[in-house]
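Hi support team,

I've been running sequence recovery on a batch of backbones for a student project. Most finish fine, but this one hangs at about 90% for roughly twenty minutes before it completes. I'm not sure whether the input is malformed or the queue is just slow. I've pasted the structure tokens below so you can try to reproduce it. Let me know if you need the job ID as well.

Thanks,
M.K.
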């Protein structure tokens, strides 16, 4: 008889975590090992994310395989004895410029396709949890006082150059009110990274239909916390601000700093992944705090915590950025039982002194 208190994860075969040496993946590994799960990690140690050596924070309770998720033979070996996969491996961020497009498509989409093909060749369907992103939504959800819910088009350089950062109603040109985005919102990827994450979702959905695999897609909102990569074109805004302050520079805040985002702590994201792995529930879920904050608030909070210079609001912009996007967390709470536990204030204070990845 199984002990009444036994964790369901310990009754599974091994769990493969792709990208398990990275920012989010390593926290997932920590949680799984702490729960008594058998964990195998496949990680490329990509030079854009790592300095060529395994990071010092890796959990010794996991098995590590260093290689490429695009290597079919290696993936097949890594799937031996595996009953569930947490697919975190990906190039993230907006990148340096459009020259990155082939690398993003190769790592994110070809890598996912290779993993799915090897999963489909297994005699029994497997559980798959995909790390997706809120970038698949493009602009968030907006309401016009006259026309109700509308989907504004991409912001133009002319409006952005003029400091008109808010997207207007596409029907009447009036101001819009942003709302929390639910999972059934239309997908509207607006940069290369977003396009590759959208394709990952479509590939996983096709795999689920054709093989019977249980697929859970987790759309991460703005993840921050310990082990973030430092200031690179592939890093999140939180680590870019933190790196500037450490260097004695004021954080540079694009646009007017009033862009709304949902900043969710990495330990909460890891907890959502563990819930998804042990749950029979499939589908798509926002992984977020449910508490929107502006980008300017993030910069201010980090500056205060570090005693650094006040942020500089520049008016600069990136065409691939969207104005407001924050999440509805109702479905994740109701169906996965996921609720973020780390407040924005607590998380920002921790990030001010947390270890970042070189």
């Amino acid at each position: 008889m199984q002990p009444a208190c036994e964790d369901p994860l310990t009754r599974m075969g091994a769990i493969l975590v792709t990208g398990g040496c990275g920012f989010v993946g390593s926290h997932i590994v920590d949680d799984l090992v702490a729960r008594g799960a058998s964990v195998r990690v496949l990680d490329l140690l990509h030079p854009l994310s790592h300095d060529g050596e395994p990071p010092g924070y890796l959990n010794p309770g996991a098995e590590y395989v260093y290689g490429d998720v695009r290597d079919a033979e290696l993936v097949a070996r890594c799937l031996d004895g595996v009953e569930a996969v947490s697919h975190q491996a990906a190039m993230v961020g907006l990148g340096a410029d459009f020259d990155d497009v082939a690398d993003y498509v190769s790592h994110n989409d070809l890598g996912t396709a290779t993993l799915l093909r090897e999963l489909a060749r297994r005699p029994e369907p497997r559980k798959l949890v995909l790390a997706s992103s809120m970038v698949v939504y493009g602009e968030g959800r907006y309401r016009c006082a006259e026309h109700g819910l509308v989907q504004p088009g991409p912001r133009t350089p002319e409006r952005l150059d003029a400091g008109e950062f808010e997207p207007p109603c596409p029907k009447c040109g009036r101001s819009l009110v942003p709302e929390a985005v639910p999972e059934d919102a239309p997908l509207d990827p607006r940069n290369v990274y977003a396009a590759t994450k959208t394709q990952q979702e479509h590939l996983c959905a096709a795999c689920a239909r054709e093989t019977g695999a249980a697929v859970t897609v987790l759309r991460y909102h703005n993840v921050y916390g310990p082990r973030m990569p430092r200031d690179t074109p592939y890093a999140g805004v939180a680590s870019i601000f933190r790196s500037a302050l450490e260097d004695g520079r004021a954080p540079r805040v694009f646009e007017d700093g009033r862009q709304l985002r949902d900043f969710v702590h990495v330990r909460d994201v890891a907890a959502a992944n563990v819930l998804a792995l042990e749950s029979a529930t499939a589908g798509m879920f926002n992984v977020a705090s449910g508490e929107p904050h502006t980008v300017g608030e993030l910069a201010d909070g980090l500056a205060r915590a570090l005693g650094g210079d006040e942020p500089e609001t520049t008016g600069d912009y990136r065409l691939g950025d969207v104005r407001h996007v924050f999440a509805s967390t109702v479905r994740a709470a109701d169906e996965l039982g996921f609720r973020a536990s780390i407040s924005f204030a607590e998380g920002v204070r921790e990030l001010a002194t947390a270890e970042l990845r070189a």
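--
Follow-up from support: It reproduced on our side and the slowdown came from queue contention, not your input. The longest strand covers residues 127-133. No action needed from you.
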